[in-house]
Design a protein that fits this description.
Radius of gyration: 13 Å
Structural class: alpha+beta
Order of helices and strands: EHEEHEE
Helix content: 10-25%
Number of helices: 2
Strand content: 25-35%
Largest sheet: 5 strands, antiparallel
Number of domains: 1
Shape: globular
Distance between the termini: 10 Å
Length: 107
């Protein structure tokens, strides 16, 4: 759904999002020195719209935390479109149909 960046010494994203009751996971991927990159993956079993809403809520929560200064070097590397709330019938947030349970659209 999105690729995120935080400072290498930033608080643990898993811990920050642990209390949220959304069906998602963060997958650490190789990154340049000094930062950590993560793929945000959302379970799409409950439908395309729900998947888009979860991505929207998670990224907006992280974006808000970063604006307060509590998430150094936070940046959305790919997937900025998920910051906008999906509207019914809006294919901007279209997720291609695949057989996998987890969806990721990377950079």
């Amino acid at each position: 759904m999105a690729t995120l960046q935080v400072a290498e010494d930033a608080p643990d994203l898993q811990a920050i999002l642990a209390d949220l009751d959304f069906d998602f996971r963060l997958e650490r991927i190789p990154s340049p020195p000094g930062v950590s990159w993560f793929n945000l993956l959302v379970n799409a079993r409950r439908g395309q719209r729900r998947c888009a809403l979860i991505a929207h809520r998670l990224l907006n929560a992280l974006h808000s935390i970063s604006r307060s200064g509590d998430l150094p070097s936070f940046r959305i590397i790919a997937g900025e479109r998920w910051l906008q709330s999906p509207e019914p019938g809006d294919d901007t947030h279209r997720i291609e149909s695949r057989e996998e349970e987890w969806r990721f659209e990377g950079p």
